[in-house]
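Note to self: keep these together.
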Amino acid sequence: MKFFKKLLKIIIGLLVLFLVGVWLFSKTYHPNYNDEIKIKNLSEEVSIYFDDIGVPHIYAKNQKDAYMALGYVHAQDRLWQMELIRRIASGRLSEIFGEKLVRTDKLFSGLGIEEASEKTIANLDKNSPKYKLAMAYLDGLNQYIEEGKTPLEFTLVGVEKENYTLKDMYNVFGYMAFSFAIAHKTDPLLTEVKEKLGETYFKELIGGESENLTIIKNEKNAVLTGRFAKAINDLYDVLPISPFIGSNSWVIGADKTKNGKVIFANDPHIGFSQPSVWYQAHVTTPDYEMYGFHLALIPFPLLGHNKDYAYGLTMFENDDVDFYVEQENPENRNQYKSENRFIDYKLIEKRIKIKDRKDSVYKIKVSKHGPVMNGIIDHLDDERSIAMQWIYTKGKNQILDVAYEISHANNLSEFKKGASKLHAPGLNMMYGDAENNIAWFASGKLYTYRDSLYTKTYLDGASGKDEILGYLDFEENPQAVNPRWNYVYSANNQPDSVAGMLYPGYYLNEDRGKRIVNLLEPKNDWTKEDVAKMMFDVTSPNAPIIIADFIKSINQRDLSVSEKKAIYFLKNWKGNFEIEEVGPVIYNRMVYEFQKNTFADEMGKSYSQFANTPFIEKILPVQAKRVNSVWWDNIMTKDKIENKEDIINTSFKNAFAFLQNQLGGNVEDWTWKRVISVEYKHAVGEVAGLRKYFNVGPFVTAGGDQVINNQIYDIDSTGVYKVKAGPSTRRVVDFSDVENSFAIVPTGQSGRVFSKHYKDQAQKYLNGEFVKMKINQSEIERSKNLLVLKPKK
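Structure:
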C-alpha cells in the first residue's frame, strides 16, 4: 500500500511538473505587453499601453519613433500572418507548404506584381515623409524578427525568419488589388457562353445585368468546360490568407442624426481566416493621431478615425482587368501581332522553390497587354494565347501615397487629394468629419474604349481596335459630397453614370444597397446604437420577391400536406436570416435547384464556376421574373421543351425531397441554425490534430448571403452553408461622442495562439456586440499593460 501511495505521489508530481512546463513554454509564446526593451534607431522613449482587448496605444514624441514602435508590436502579434501574405504575390508559398501550392505560386508570380513593385520603388522619393515612415515601420518590424520570440507556426512548418523589405510591402498591395478583381473569374466563362452557345443565350444572360439595379446616386449543344474560371477558383480555394470580396459603408449627415453630428459606419467584407485581417493600433504624437486598422505589412491604416474625421472603404467593383486574344506568328511563337506587324514577346524566366522537391522553372510570355495566361494557368484548354491586361501593373503606382495621405489628411480636401491618386484596385472611399462633412469618392483609374465594345468577353489583341482610348480625370469619377439627401453609402453597387454611361464593372446585386437605402431614408434621428443594430441586420428585401415569383408557378393542387407547409413557410417568410427561421433553408435550396435546372444543362462542366459568382446573384431575380427564356428548355430531354412552370415545379419537388432527407419529416424543424456555420481557419489548422488549437469555431451564426450582416457561402449540392467570408470588422464612429465610438473584429487582435486576445472577441462578434475604440489618454493610461521602448545606444 505504501508503494502505491509513493507511486501516486511521484505520478502527481510529474504531472504537476509537466503542466508547469507547458505553462512556462506557452508563456514564452505570449506577446510581450509589459516590459522595457531597448531597440536601435529610436530617438526617444516610446510608451505603448495595451488595452483590455490587446490594442496598442502608442505615445511617441515624433512620428518616426511611433511608426518604428508600430512595426515592432505589429510583428509580435502578427508575424506569421505577415509571412504568409508577403509570400503570396511573390510566389513563395510552395517553399513552406509544398507541391499543393505550386499552381498558386505560378499564377501570382506571373502576374507582374513583383516587377511592378520594383519599378515603383526605383522611382520613390527617398526624402518624402511616407517613405521615411514606411522604412521606420520596417525597421521596427525587422528588429522584432532579430530579437523577439519566434511564433510557434514558424517552428511547426519549419521556415526560417527573414527580414522584410519595401518590396514585400508593395507586394501586399498587389495581392490586395488582384483579390479585388473579378474579371478573371467571369470573363472567360461569358466568352464560352457567347462562342459555344451563341448570341441568344449570351444576350439574355448579360441582359440581366442592367435590371434590378439600386444605383448609387452621383451629384445550344456545345460543351462548356469553364477551365479558366475553375482554375482561378481552385487556386483561391487553397490560399492560406484572406481574399478581399465586398463591403458595406454608410455615412449619415448631421441633419439625419439625433445629436446633430455625423455618424460613420463601415464593415469591409473579406474572406474569414485566423488571425483576423485587421490589426488595430492607436498612434499619437504631438502632431498626429489616428486609431487605425492595418493590413499585415502596411504601416498606414486603410480604415481609421480620430477626433476630426473618419474614413473607410468598400470595393468599387469596376472592371480593371481585360483579356486579349493575341495572334501569334505561325513561324515564330515568341512573336505576336500588333496591328500590321509582329513584335517579340518579352520573355521572363521564373523559378519556384518547392519544399522537399526540385525547383520548378518556367517562362512567361508578356505582350503589350500583359502576361499570357496559357503559360501561367496549367491546362488552360484554349489554343489561342490569352493575355491579361491589368491596370494595377500598367499605371503609375501611388498606392503608398494614397494610404499615407488619407490617414494624414487635415480636411476633406486633403482626403480627396489622397483618394484621387489611387489607380487600382478600385475602391469606394468613404468619409465623415466633425465639421459635418460627408463624402463618397469612387477611386481608381477609369478609362474608355470605343463605343459598343463589351469588355467582359475576350478582346482582339491584334487589330488595335480594342485598345484603351483614354483615361478619365478623377473629377469624372462617381462621387457625392454633402448631398442633399444627407447620407452617402456603398454596398458594391452600380454607380450612376460616368462620362455619360454606366461604367462597366462587376457590381453586386442590389439587396444590401436596397436594404441600406430603405432603412436610412425614412429616419432622421439616428444614434450610434441604431447604426450598430443596423450593421447586424439580416433581412433581404429581394428574397421575398423572388419567392413570390417562384410560388406563382408552383402547382399546389397535388402537393402533400408537408409540401404545403413548406410553401406556407416560404410565403410568410420576410427574408430574414435569423437562426430559428425555416424560410432561409427552403429558399436557399430552392435557389440551388432553380439555378441548376435552368443553366446547368447548357453550361455543363462550367456551371459549377457560374453557380457562385456575383454574376448569377444579379441574374437570379431577373430570371425568376421571366416568362419566356431560352434557358428554360432542358437540352438533355429530346422529346420535350420545358417551360418556366416545369423548371420551378421540378425545383420545388427536388428541394423538398432533399430537405426531408437531410433534416427530417417535420418542416418546422428545418431551422437555419441546423445548416449554417462559420469557422475561422488558421493555415496550420488544416492539420487535423492542430485544428482545435489554431482554428476558432465552428459557430452557428445569424445572417445570409447579401444581407447587411453578409455571411458569404457557396450554395451547392451539400445543403450545408459553411461561411467563408463576411464583415472583417464592424465599426461605428459618432462625432457627437467620438471618444465612445466602437468596433469589433471576428476573433481577436492577436495572431499568437497562446495570447488571451487570440479569440476574445469571437462571441461578441457573433452576438452583434461591440467594444470601445479608446482614444481618451487618461482612460488609456489606466491600463495595467505598459511596454516601454527605449533607445539602444
